[in-house]
DNA sequence: CCCTTAACTTGAGTTATTCAAGTTTACGAG
DNA sequence: CTCGTAAACTTGAATAACTCAAGTTAAGGG
């Protein structure tokens, strides 16, 4: 299924800007809004930064992109969605690396005691220093 | 051991503002910087917002308070530190609730594949809707 | 009781993000 | 196909959280 179908299925209109955003996020590696903006303009020419914010917001609400926000750094977006994977973030350089879920399918989705909450997502970030910053 | 000793042991000077910050964070429930500021002024009178930022930063570096930053909301601080507990955050009202670690002591500290990172902290946030917002 | 330097104050600056108002465009209805 | 409308986009200003900088105060070792 193409990106256009995914958009339509989510009740969103298909525009060049949105297709370019989806491609850029998929090709990129946890890009921030500015990075997405640059990628989009390289593909389809001038698009305003606000359009990128707006579209990423819409895509996120529709579940087509995932948003992560490591503390102290701007929000980042990725295409892998719905597979409950997590992130390693480097304290030095801020690089984000995917980690698959520890034990099988979705063991991290449920807390021991949910305190009455209806939980729909688990957001797990491991903090450390990446190989190239360890030198 | 009193807060003053904790501060000294961390190589920090003991001031009324810092003691008040530590008390406020301990008494409060995941307060943001503004909440801490209010609590501190109630205890010791006028203290600048920047002093609160500065001190919280120092206390955090010293490991005396823990900082959490749920996406989309300002940073929050708590006194429970070093016990690897996690958080439930309400999507509606933003309330933060502590959850103890799922399986025993520190099972969540290590990812399945650390990709060469030296991991020192795991930050786990469960997103959902709290009991009082479910009505 | 000084002296040094950490801690604090005041005030301005930065950055990521949002708000608002007006214009354009996708796309379903006719 | 073309028309109307709401979604999408544009431009520009505003906001919130936080940081930076320069000068003042005060903790605590000598």
From TrEMBL, chains A, B:
One of its GO terms (biological process) is regulation of secondary metabolite biosynthetic process. It is found in: Cytoplasm. InterPro entries: FUR, Fur_C, WH-like_DNA-bd_sf, WH_DNA-bd_sf. Zn(2+) binds at residues 90, 93, 130, 133. Its main location: cytoplasm. It comes from the Bacteria. One of its GO terms (cellular component) is cytoplasm. GO terms for molecular function: DNA-binding transcription factor activity; transcription cis-regulatory region binding; zinc ion binding. The keyword Oxidoreductase does not apply. CDD domains: Fur_like. Gene3D superfamilies: 3.30.1490.190, Winged helix-like DNA-binding domain superfamily/Winged helix DNA-binding domain. Its cofactor is Zn(2+). Keywords: Cytoplasm, DNA-binding, Iron, Metal-binding, Repressor, Transcription, Transcription regulation, Zinc. Binds 1 zinc ion per subunit. Belongs to the Fur family. This is Transcriptional repressor. It comes from Nonomuraea terrae.
